[in-house]
Write a structure and sequence with these properties.
The structure is a single chain. The chain contains three helices and no strands. The chain is mostly helical and about 90 residues long. The longest helix is centred in the last third of the chain and has 29 residues. The chain is elongated. The mean pLDDT is about 80.
Length: about 90
């Protein structure tokens, strides 16, 4: 590169000029938000797994019940983490 070319790196790192880094204006209507929606979906999926764990306990399949309980716990933990990432990205 020659000295007469514009190689100001700060201009290229400006977040206002970065079309990829900006969220665009994507908003959900009403009281919904993207982070809340993502976290809520993870929590609902975990809540749907818990009845299967309860049926497994009633049938005496304790190993299977433990598996489903751990799966529900991991889904809740993943929902919290992904919700925080989405909050930083979309808010």
């Amino acid at each position: 590169m020659s000295d007469d070319e514009d190689d100001d790196i700060e201009e290229y790192l400006d977040p206002e000029l970065d079309p990829v880094g900006s969220t665009g204006g994507f908003e959900l209507p009403g009281p919904l938000s993207v982070p809340g929606l993502i976290t809520g979906l993870h929590f609902m999926a975990a809540a749907l797994v818990l009845p299967v764990a309860w049926v497994s306990v009633q049938n005496g399949a304790y190993l299977q019940a433990g598996f489903y309980s751990v799966l529900a716990g991991l889904m809740v933990a993943a929902g919290v983490v992904v919700g925080r990432i989405a909050e930083r990205r979309y808010d």
